[in-house]
Amino acid sequence: MIDKSKEKKILCVGAGYVGGPTMAVIASKCPGYTVTVVDIDQKKINGWNSDSLPIYEPGLLETVKKVRGKNLFFSTDIAKEIDACGIIFVSVNTPTKTFGEGAGRAADLQFWEKTARSIIEHSNDDKIVIEKSTLPVRTAEAMHRILQSNSKGLNFDIISNPEFLAEGTAIKDLENPDRVLIGSMDSDSGRKAAAKIAEIYGSWVKKDKILLTNVWSSELSKLVSNAMLAQRISSINSISALCEKTDADVDEVAKAVGMDSRIGPKFLKAGVGFGGSCFKKDILNLVYLCEFYGLNEVAEYWQKVVDVNEFQERRFVLNMIAKMFNTVAGKKIAIFGFAFKADTGDTRESPAIYVAKKLIEEKAELSIHDPEALKNAKIDLKDCNGKISYYRDYLDCVKGVHAVAILTEWNCFKDYDYEKIFSLMEKPPFIFDGRNIVDRKKLFRIGFNVSSIGKTFLTNLDKHN
Ligand code: NAD
Ligand code: UGA
What we know:
Layout: E1 9-13, H1 19-29, E2 34-38, H2 42-48, H3 60-67, E3 72-75, H4 78-84, E4 87-90, H5 110-122, E5 127-131, H6 139-148, E6 156-160, H7 170-175, E7 180-184, H8 188-201, E8 210-214, H9 215-246, H10 250-258, H11 279-292, H12 296-323, E9 332-336, H13 351-361, E10 365-369, H14 374-380, E11 388-391, H15 394-398, E12 403-406, H16 418-424, E13 430-433, H17 440-446, E14 449-452, H18 461-464
Parallel strand pairs: 1-2, 1-4, 2-3, 4-5, 5-6, 7-8, 9-10, 9-12, 10-11, 12-13, 13-14
Antiparallel strand pairs: 6-7
The protein binds nicotinamide-adenine-dinucleotide and uridine-5'-diphosphate-glucuronic acid.
Uridine-5'-diphosphate-glucuronic acid binds next to α9.
């Protein structure tokens, strides 16, 4: 049983894309609770304590400002806060392992285990420990063993409460989630702990959206949700390749297919490929787990979702090279969008990284423009030997370029002055729309050669002959 005086004290270990926004929303919806977010990264914590937050997310700064210093606090004093709080969310990163057994596929749980060990070290009473990070199924078992091995006779209840927010819409998703999943161990103490977590979310989420399950179902549901979302994208992307061969239009196909209410319209937007820190990592993790349990056919099935994504990225660059007369060497190419999706500065696993590196390998010069992600783009490409420049202004970015490649679905790209862009570019000018967001017919009329995903090539080249 957690200490009564600590029942309304929440700690979150990990002040990243999940920890920061999630705790800001919990603090704003639950004024009766005190919420503290801790991290080992002092710079990040300084950012959370300032008006220049470490991540960009629409509506985040407003939410943080409403509660920061009242019932939301950011700190690096992990030891003190572990002791002070009864409820501990852990949302540290769980990247793909880069070393040893399972390298390139299994989840690297070292940050989680370190956190579990500091919880043991600094706790002086019972706690509820919540898996907020995405973890392989049955991690709770290992974590429970580690926590229960404490020599102080303390009880730790472990709860799985995976996060389903998407970047760019985090605040909206947190305020109005499709569901909140709370998995607990099959014991009295486990069920009581789950009820306490459900009570927190119950402050703003309707009861029928709060799902109480066993801990393994909860852990696995998170991996499967991401795998299924990514699977839909790979499915439509695979069809986009066929559309390009057959003169079908992938957006028309997606609309027709998605109008079947059994299929539904969401996550059927073809593009240059999915990015983000989680889809690939979580699917590879699922693949690894299936192999571990000897389910090789199941593993191969999910591996294909990642393979098709890589095929789509590669296809995009090869198409650029082919359309630009089989060489981009010495040509200047503008990249519009480096973030892995719109409304975020996050570039983790962004298809833009692959596209940029491949173009540099082919000896193209790059000028990169993104409303929020230039800082991260510079970090991602710091080891590239090639000419790369970065622009906040899109008109500066396109001066003298042979082609523009659109790699992120930023809304603002739709409204840019393409007549002006046309006038600033080398001729013949190409647009490669990796997100199918611009009005391609209008661009074609201006004089561009427009290559979109899963659509016929609109070319003015014949007219110049
Ligand atoms: P992140 O890298 O943005 O944040 C993780 C933070 O944990 C970092 O700031 C890091 O410094 C901190 N950290 C690591 N070890 C620590 C320790 N021992 N003590 C204190 N702090 C420590 O990661 P993220 O994107 O927030 O993802 C966190 C987890 O949530 C992952 O498992 C991810 O799969 C999952 N998830 C992410 C998203 C998303 O949109 N990014 C959505 C749902 C779930
Ligand atoms: C995804 C899930 O949507 C969240 O539910 C989950 O919590 C999160 O992963 C996670 O676990 O990290 P996120 O990666 O932030 O969220 O963003 P998405 O909107 O899912 O987009 C992922 C990628 O797929 C982006 O590159 C996006 O451009 C691409 N995408 C998305 C498409 O190419 N087509 C689509 O139809 C939708």
